[in-house]
Amino acid sequence: MHNSLKIYLILMVVVLAAVIALDSSTPKPINWSPTYSINDKIPFGMYVFDQELKGILKPDTLETINVTPYEYFDDYYNYDSLVNSYTTSGTFIAVNDFADFDEESVQELLYFSSHGNTVFLSMKSLPQMLLDSLKIKFKSNFEMNEASTLWFANEKLGPEKYFITEGLGTNYFSEIDTLTTTVLGYQGNDKAFANYIKVPYKQGHFLLHLQPAVFTNFHLLKNKHSDYTEKVLSYIPKGNIFWYTKGITDGHISQNPMRFIFSQPALKAGWYLFLIGMTVFILFNIKRKQRIVPVITPLENTTIEFTKTIGNLYFQEGNHSTIIDKKIIYLLDKIRREYLIDTNVLDDKFVQKLQLKTGKNREDLNQLFYKINQHRKGNFESVENDLVEINTLIEKIFN
Questions:
Q1: Which of 121, 180, 283, 350 has the fewest CB atoms within 10 Å of its CB?
Q2: Which pLDDT tens digit goes with each residue over 157-184?
């Protein structure tokens, strides 16, 4: 393992340990989300109510419904023309922040109630189809958004008033049929607004309540708010209870396989820190590592240096004639190889061919080969001067 990798791992472990230590010493923040889930132990979950429901109501049977009311009660209806009724009876109970019933389910609840059964709904808002069928309306009073007092109309339940500040709903029943509908409870501060009513429907009736927060863990465990909840439920008749839990079974519980890690702030922070650290590590090591390749100096071409050395040797020895001969030999060899011209006879015809193939100046070519021919014949006054003149012409023409 490379030293740099060891440093990265040690640093990540130290930082992770520091984050976990700091987070463990910090109080876990309270989750105030209104989930109304029977599995949640947070303030606005209904774990306590679900556990105590059977003890409070003491029903003959307690059925948990995790499908729509239509799907559940339709199976209990006998369509025989001689019967044409339900094979079961009792009270349907639903508590949630809002109504999640489809139209078929609302119609089923109306039909269930019409056969002598009770439907208890505690929600901040109710299905419009149900309101229209029962001929009731509700409005919002935003003055109650922060706090309100709740109490009952029936003096037998006691004159006590319950002050609510958390999870409060603002809706109240604004229009009811006073000839048939009974107001069971109120809310408000300076003025009373109906929040709990009993509405008859054919052979049965509906119990409609607009403050579902009183059924949550927070209020059941706070002061005497549980007394208020028990009094609300006291209007439910004895018999079978159908406890509607569809949509509130899972609550806010994630189905993610890593939900436990994400539910713990320390583990969640550690997980994200691990991902960030691995990303940084990959970015820094994305290029392939290898040892530094040493720079190898290429071998020098010593041919030129050798030629210069030999040339200087001839020149220092005063052997100018040999140097001229070497120059002529190399020049004629170059002409034969590159221009494919016979160099046995260096006459005007040869010069003409060379001039046509090279495009060089004709006068320079004539002068060069005249000097070469004269040197070969031994007609020269100074070998040193001939060497200079022939070398100058060769460099001028071919270089």
A1: 283
A2: 999 999 988 888 889 999 998 899 999 9
